[in-house]
Amino acid sequence: MIQRRAFLLASVAALALPGKVMAKSLVKGGKASQLRAKGARAPIEIIEDELGVPHVRARSPHDAYFGQGYLVARDRLFQIDMEYRRDMGRMAEAFGPRFVAADKAARLFLYRGDIDAELAALPPGVLDCAKGYVAGVNARISELAADPTQLPLEYGILNLQPLRWDVRDLVRNRGIGMGDADDEVRRAQMQALGLLDADQLMAPLRPAWSFTVPEGLDCAAVSDADLGILDPSARPVPFDAIQEASLDRAERRADRFAQGSNAWTIAPSRSATGRPILANDPHLGIGGFSPRHMVHLTAPGLDVIGAGAPGLPGIMQGHTDRFAFGRTNFHIDQTDLFILRTDKDDPERYWHKGRWRRFETFEDEIAVKDGPAQRVSLRYAQGRPIVAQDAARQRASAFATVSMLPGANMRFAIIAINLARDWTSLRQAFKIHVSPTNFHYADVDGNTGWQTIGFTPRRPRHDGLFPAPGDGDFDWTGIMPVEEMPHVYNPKEGWFASANQLNIPPDYPHASNVISFDWSDPFRYDRISDVLRSQPRHRIEDSIALQHDVRSLPARALMKLIPDKLLPAAAPAAAMLKRWDCGLEADSAAALLYEMVMPELQAGFRDLVVPAAAREFIPSVNLFEMLRILATPDKRLGPVPNLARDALIERSLVAGWNKALEQGGPDPAQWRWGDLHRVTIAHPLSSLPGIGAAFPKIDGGRSGGDGYTPMARGFNGKRGYQVSHGASYLLVADVGAWDNSRFLLLPGQSGDPRSARYRDFYPRWVAGEMQPLWFSREAVDRHAAGRMEIVPA
After folding, report:
1. Which CATH number fits domain 553-676: 1.10.600, 3.30.2310, 1.10.1400, 1.10.287?
2. Which of 115, 347, 503, 523 is deepest in the core (most CB within 10 A)?
3. Is residue 585 within 8 Å of residue 703, measured between CB atoms?
């Protein structure tokens, strides 16, 4: 039904493309357009600069965030509306019964505690700003209701209307995610079969650690069924651009670790400017909706610019008038799967702390388009969602996640950070910051800091590596205070960096304060640190170059392993690679060859060292662990390890060369990595005919790099070589001389193809041409391209 209607409306949508419907802005020097909007408390001025960055000048922080909410809804309404529908479990009411399972799962992860108490506990001023943001979103929706011609094209094609927002939903919405529950289940299954030692080949524990099965856990009874609705196949979302439910374990794990970032902070003592420099490039999904939106918010007590996540109030990466801030993932283990014993005679009861307790149950109703409403029962144990239950086996799974705890109000945390004035007040703001993060800081007084933040559960009786019995003996006993998390202020080295690597200090009491054993391979960090150590006077230009660095440390490691004596069939590949500088440039033939050889090497290594019985659980091997073993071969490779290693590399060179001939053509001189490794942006619902016609793909860009280079341009080989993750937003901040700062955004501010801001940054991003981030009032006024005013209705 939806696709048929989309097809019929496609021509209408296509005819609408030439029009301009986005900002009500006039050219520089003209009279500002005016909007009367309910929710604004005083006039708000918005200046859009030549690069499309809006600068909001308000008389209160509330109205500044009102401006952000309005602008995000102006530029990305369908994007934030779909995320809001998905997270609140309201997809079926728009798209029909196929979404009921996903809606039920989403509603299971809505907060069921005291909303008023949560709002009252927020830091001063934060709630008022959040109300402003929500009012701004709703003001744009009201504007569109009065003039439907401005609605984003998706609404006409899909016959939808946007949902109005409620600030209380920022508390309710906690989000569903598996965390590492699938890893816990896998380890238990492997332990039951005596295969757990092989898990190190895919998921090495960092720091080194010995497995201990929680007392009372029957590993042989653990199965994938214990994941229940955490498994994406149990809650398929038919319109996803990439069907997560169809991905195998290796793909899901690779996608999880792809969401990384780079950041570094340079102290004045190491800076050519004599001021701190802070650089950040968050690595998120590339190919669908842009995950960042730019804005500058100014009001008494507030002056912050940078990129925010559409639908989340505030600026996630940027700078205030006092300090610059950036972030990368810190990989805290924030979830546990608890196995409950239920009552044989009454499956609504479970055993906990010496007595039977009854599940907390909430009845809900899911509205369904073209069908009857669906009644659902949502169960919890100690506030933990029940994700699976098998009454016949007297078994249920409760999923403990920090996001469901009281006080876990991540959707307000960024506002608190934006309102902070210094390192001390920031550390107060961090107390409601749930997401695991390396927070980078540099201020106008020359101070630099690194603080790890995010809710870290205290587990006094287990380490989070296996499911745990849900009888109460293994319950969490609280959250680690921010002050006990790893941090540093004004480090003596004069710089620090993070790239999702294991960065817990060696003297940190990890055994008593378990944070995580799962970290990204250190290749990006090692390359970044090598460069920074070699630059005693680091410049803004150096940070820009490092963000676009494509030198591959895994390639260097492979070059050292290529044998001197090879069969003739392997000689051409070896010769090309040995002449190479290990740079994954878009125009490099050797880079293309390398990207063909490495998967062959990993597949051959897996077949050689992973026991046959364990291959079901280990679909891929860890790159760092593989290269480490190949550099110092042992008996796992065979009775003569060195010869087995050389033969494996030889076979991989031959297979990789043949694959390169298939992918790059018969003439190796014409191979170019960028011809395969391209950047394509498509609407996530482009498989629907109407959407595909109305939203033409943004493509043509060739890229270097891969997921292990500082310029992270990752891909999933099972889906092709197209860039699937990387830094769609980049920032280099000259702390204190703010107008010297530089940024990039992909593909543009707007999600509407009728807007000039739909893809204007795409060619700049592909070329790595960083743009000025104007901040001072003088610079913004000098580069103003349009103005509008919002006045209270």
Report:
1. 1.10.1400
2. 523
3. no
